[in-house]
Amino acid sequence: MKTALAFHSVVKTYGSTRALDGLSFAIPAGAICGLVGSNGAGKTTTLALAAGLLSPGAGRIEVLGNGPWDPSRKPGQLALLPQDSILPPEATVGQLLRLYARLQDVPPNRVERDVEEALSRVHLLDRKEAPTRTLSHGMRRRVMIAQAFLGNPALILLDEPLNGLDPREAAAARDLFASWRGRATLVISSHVLSELERLCDFIVILEKGKALHAGSLTQWLRQEQRLIYELEGASLDWEILRREYPHWALSLSPDGRLLECRYDPAQWDAVEVNGRLLPRLLEAGVGIRAIRPGETLESRYLDTLAQGAQAHDRPETGT
Amino acid sequence: MNRTALWIPLVFLAGLILGALHPRAELRRTRNELEARKKAERTPPPPVERLDRLLQMLPLDTPRPSAAEERASSTPASDPSAPSAESPPMNAPPVSRASPDETPEERRARFEEQLEQAAEAWRLRGEVARQTFAAQAGLNATEQAAFEAAIQSMNERLEALFSALAERLRQGEPMTPETGLAVMHEASGILLETYQELDQTLPPTWRQETGQNFDIVQQVDPGVLRPLLDVRESLQPPTGGSLPPPGGRGPLPRLFGPPPAP
Amino acid sequence: MNRFLSHLAALTRFEIADSVHSRRAAVVLALYLAAALLGVNAFATALQRLEQQLAELLQTGPAPAGALADSLWKSARFRQMIVALIGDRETALSLFSMPPIALLYGFLSFFYTPFFALLVSTPRVAMEVYTGSCRFVLFRTSRMAWILSKFIGQAVLVLLALALSTAGAWTLARFRLTGMDAFSAAAGIAIMSGKAWLFSLPFVALGLAISQSLRSPNTAQALGFLAWIGTGALAWLAKRYAGEGIRMAWDVVALLVPQGFQLELWRMEFASFAYAALWLLVLTAAYLMLGFLHFSRQDL
Which end of chain B is more exposed for a tag (fewer CB within 10 A), N or C? Predict the structure, then answer.
């Protein structure tokens, strides 16, 4: 499997602050990867290093299999939506996107068309000749999203892309990202874990400059091994249910709102399990608010953080 | 871009600087030597007070000093015809001054130089006067060219007049009051004809427009007098004449200016 | 190389358009034009007063403004006097090949244009680093192309300012000095304008070098102003104290600042001009590269 982006023991310091502390991960080509971490974990630094805007203090970065990113070597193959960056205020939206398209090696006869297409996707075609200083924060954000999808990049780095977007535009942006699945590798840094859970198929968890986890999201959430039911008004004798289904591990949360059913994926699949369990629950008068496979990203992430903290706090035992 | 290539302009600059140091030092030494020599040779120029002192260099306006005055003047500054107020430029030959032992050739050269200086000042004055006249009279390019042509023709005819006079004097004809009057009559006629020519070629309103400011005598080039340099001695009236020539002590009537103040 | 040049062209076009629309540049441009026009106006007033006095002296009556100055300028006698006053024949004769209004304009533009160049160029890179807008560009193209486009764009802006001030100064002089030779004045002003542009290039490069080294546009602009004063002071000190031995270090200083070649630019001989042009272009490249050596490794 080709790798779109790989970090090998990368270290980056800002003065005395160690932003990345031996970060290592590899993102396969074609994936939509979520980059998750708490504030100061190193997400923005990671994306900036990948785009060549920062230089690592140590370690090795491989972008599209070719070492550190150099725009002169593979122009137009990488795109970035940087965080906390302001578009030039006096230029019009059209001027900016035309410039970016040309720099992205879009053929001259296609520049105008690509620009209009990008603006249409973010519903800003009518603002093509408006100076960026006249746009609202959300509109500027949409322009920034549009510029990241100009040309035909193979790797697109998006740092907090949905910040400042209204719900309609956020949904449109998610659709746009999803439409590029298979065409390019997307790396999306976000705090909105539910969005990432819907979009991503790969996840990298950062904490204090290190990768706590990097791998398939599905596997990490153990979606093939669990079903979770959100209940309401449950009044079932759960022991009876357990006795009825001994080959599955059923457990109820203390507040009675979540029922977890763990099963062996070698013998069962989620459809089969649900087909048997759901009617039984409905028959027992249990209200079902939602059914989802596996854990949520948020709960899994918090668990991972906690485990990481415990490992850090555990006293070392020596003999 | 290879980072080594970024150093090329800096290395090139360093090379240029190293190469330029020696020539600059040499140039500075040479300049210092030249300055030192100039300082040693230079006499401080007298201040130029008024530009009209240039006009005083015109030899015909200035009475020829008597022999007693010439013997008495032992310093160049006492020669009234010498341009004492003129600042000699660094690169122009110094203005010569009269001395008691001056040979005729030296005197001629001195008069020629004074005439040339006066002519230059008069040309400047004439140029300004012409431009002033053209602006005041509202002349277009054609009329201005006609004006210039009329003035040039006038100066050429005056020069021819004085050439003829010089030739006659050279051939031994004495300079009598009558001769002087005839020359004056002919010169005045040339000036009057020029006025008439201007009336024909310039707009009819030119006299009203220019008012009293236009004086055709200002347009006469002192260079027209150059032919008389060789026969300056002959311009003195013969001894025994009882009547002073009109207009002053000099034999040649004052054509170009008021009589000097007593 | 083709890609580098096409990126450079696209970036330069954008930079020129962005600079022209920049409010900061517009204000500075207006101030520059005002300074040039005020200078020409003051010169015309002083010249008219002088001409009036001279006309009274020569008893020529009132002359059209500028006519007497033109006549004097062409007079051999007057030139000899000026040569004596200046003491340097070559420099004086160089001055006489230009009409006086062109000399005045040259003096103004040589004085003001470096200041203008530094004011507009110093914030350009620092502002984009400060706001992060450069990040949208610098993952797409090389930093060298971007910096070069900044330099070319700012140089074009200075050229535009000079063109406008040339037109304005000539028009004002034509209006105030009706007697001056319009064609030779236009040619003279245009020549001095071109020389002033050449003289300003190292200052554009110096401004961008300062801008590449800082993240604050205001600090960069303040440093640019100090650089203008500082280079002038260094040139003056170098001229005064250069000598033999250890004092040859002042020769090196004179060769490192653009003002060290100002006299050669004033002269009309091609050899002097070529000498000054070569040095100024080398200084331009050196200043720009010095800044880029820092910027090429800077975290953005």
Answer: C
Distance CA(A286)–CA(A278), nearest Å, equals 10
Q: Do A54 and C299 touch (CB under 8 A)?
A: yes
Using a CB–CB cut-off of 8 Å, the residues of B that contact C are 1, 3, 6-10, 12-13, 16-17, 20-21, 24-25, 28, 38, 45, 48, 50-52, 54, 87-92, 117, 120-121, 123-125, 127-129, 131-132, 135-136, 213, 218
Inter-chain residue contact B91 with C80, CB threshold 8 Å: yes
pLDDT tens per residue across span B227-237: 887 777 666 55
Interface mutation target, options B26, B39, B50, B131, chain C, most CBs of C under 10 Å: B131
| Crossing angle between the packed helical segments B8-41 and C270-295, to the nearest 10 degrees | 140
Q: Do B128 and C80 touch (CB under 8 A)?
A: no
As a whole number, mean pLDDT of residues A255-279 equals 87
Pairwise pLDDT comparison (A78 vs C37), residue with the higher score: A78
Structure token digits, residue B74: 């032992």
Q: DSSP readout, chain C? A: -HHHHHHHHHHHHHHHHHHHH-HHHHHHHHHHHHHHHHHHHHHHHHHHHHHHHHHHHHT-----TTHHHHHHHH-HHHHHHHHHHH--HHHHHHHHTS-HHHHHHHHHHHHHHHHHHHHHHHHHHHHHHHHSTTHHHHTTS-HHHHHHHHHHHHHHHHHHHHHHHHHHHHHHHHHH-TTS-HHHHHHHHHHHHHHHHHHHHHHHHHHHHHHHH-S-HHHHHHHHHHHHHHHHHHHHHHHHH--SGGGGHHHHHHHHSGGGGHHHHHS-SHHHHHHHHHHHHHHHHHHHHHHHHHHTT---
Three-class DSSP category at A211: strand
Q: By the CB < 8 Å criterion, does C81 face chain B?
A: yes
Parallel, antiparallel, or unpaired for β A155-159 and A78-81?
A: parallel
Task: Check residue C204 and give its pLDDT.
Answer: 97
pLDDT digits (tens, 9 = 90+) for B207-252: 877 766 677 887 888 788 888 877 776 665 555 444 444 444 444 4
Check CB contact under 8 Å for A52 and C140. no
Q: Check B90 against C179: CB less than 8 A apart.
A: no
Q: Are residues B131 and C80, on separate chains, in Cβ contact within 8 Å?
A: no
CB contact under 8 A, B3 and C144: no
pLDDT tens digits, B71-89: 454 444 444 444 434 443 3
Q: Which residue among B9, B20, B25 places its CB closest to the CB of C285?
A: B9
Mean predicted confidence (pLDDT) in C41-55: 77
